[in-house]
Design brief:
Length: about 120
């Protein structure tokens, strides 16, 4: 199984980015997919998750209303649309897949990508 994130970069405050997670070795529609983020010296924190078959979503309070998680079954990818970005959103963002969810707990996810860096700065 491999998860590969893309779409990170430098964006100004108030801007938008769309992160993608390309999966191989698993079918994203049959897994709960999630995004976590981490800054140096801090624990990896939950951002958003979508349940198996895409019925339920879960968001951290800090991103709710600004970020949207989705999946594209034809492309076998999961995405995170990030709007109204703030400097505090700066982090490395990780994609994860698991069989239970949409959990905010890291231990519920079995597979992880290598991360993509997002920097929000003027």
């Amino acid at each position: 199984v491999q998860l590969v994130e893309s779409g990170g970069g430098l964006v100004q405050p108030g801007g938008s980015l769309r992160l993608s997670c390309a999966a191989s070795g698993l079918t994203v529609s049959t897994y709960a997919m999630a995004w976590f983020r981490q800054v140096p010296g801090k624990e990896r924190e939950f951002v958003a998750a979508i349940s198996r078959f895409g019925i339920d979503t879960n968001y951290s309070g800090s991103v709710k209303g600004r970020f949207t998680i989705s999946r594209d079954t034809a492309r076998n990818t999961a995405s995170l649309q990030m709007n109204s970005l703030k400097p505090e959103d700066t982090a490395v963002y990780y994609c994860a897949a698991g069989l239970s969810g949409p959990s905010s707990t890291k231990d519920r996810y079995d597979y992880w990508g290598q991360g993509t860096r997002v920097t929000v700065s003027s």
